């Protein structure tokens, strides 16, 4: 849990956290990531000290697992601002953006991830699932097969290929 301590770092953190929570109540997806002028203070390297190393990613992952995709989107958006070299932050942002149909954001995240972890089953599974959500079954299959080639025993890849098969067969059901 968060421990409140006196000092300006604590106050700045609470303001930033309040901005994230306030943004989550917005009906606009764009409003979820609007942090106001307080975000400018995070460009300073000292701002990283406001967060434990994995606090944002852990919180974003929890929100994603609880299917609070708007909240996870906002949290992961903050995480990539604070930790721009962390692939876990970018993966979380991409997946959250996919779930709220912000494919423009997920495309940018996957482009960034391609330079970080591009030739891995995790990358190919995630980008494949993104294309599956969009209804782009041809590219989804292509990415899932790349993941399969890299790791044939990967259970996530097997489930994704099964989803793909079910998506293709769905129109044939009556």
Automatic annotation (TrEMBL):
| InterPro entries linked to this entry | TPR-like_helical_dom_sf, TPR_2, TPR_rpt
Put simply, this protein is called Tetratricopeptide repeat-containing protein
| TPR repeat feature ranges | 121-154
One Pfam family assigned to this protein is: TPR_2
In terms of superkingdom, the source organism counts as Bacteria
UniProt cross-references to SMART domains, sorted A to Z:
TPR
State the signal peptide span. Answer: 1-22
User: Keywords of this protein's UniProt record, alphabetized?
Assistant: Repeat, Signal, TPR repeat
Please give the PROSITE patterns that the UniProt record associates with this protein: PROKAR_LIPOPROTEIN, TPR
């Amino acid at each position: 849990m968060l421990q409140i301590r006196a000092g300006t770092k604590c106050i700045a953190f609470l303001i930033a956290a309040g901005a994230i929570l306030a943004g989550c109540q917005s009906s606009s997806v764009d409003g979820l990531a609007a942090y106001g002028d307080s975000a400018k203070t995070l460009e300073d390297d000292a701002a990283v000290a406001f967060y434990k190393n994995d606090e944002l990613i852990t919180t974003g992952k929890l929100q994603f697992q609880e299917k609070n995709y708007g909240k996870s989107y906002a949290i992961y958006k903050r995480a990539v601002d604070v930790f721009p070299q962390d692939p876990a932050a970018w993966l979380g942002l991409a997946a959250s953006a996919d779930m709220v149909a912000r494919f423009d954001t997920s495309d940018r995240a996957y482009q960034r991830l391609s330079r970080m972890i591009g030739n891995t089953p995790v990358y190919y599974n995630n980008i494949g699932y993104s294309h599956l959500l969009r209804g782009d079954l041809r590219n989804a299959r292509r990415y899932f097969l790349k993941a399969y080639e890299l790791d044939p025993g990967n259970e996530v890849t097997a489930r994704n290929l099964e989803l793909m098969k079910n998506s293709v067969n769905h129109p044939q059901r009556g």
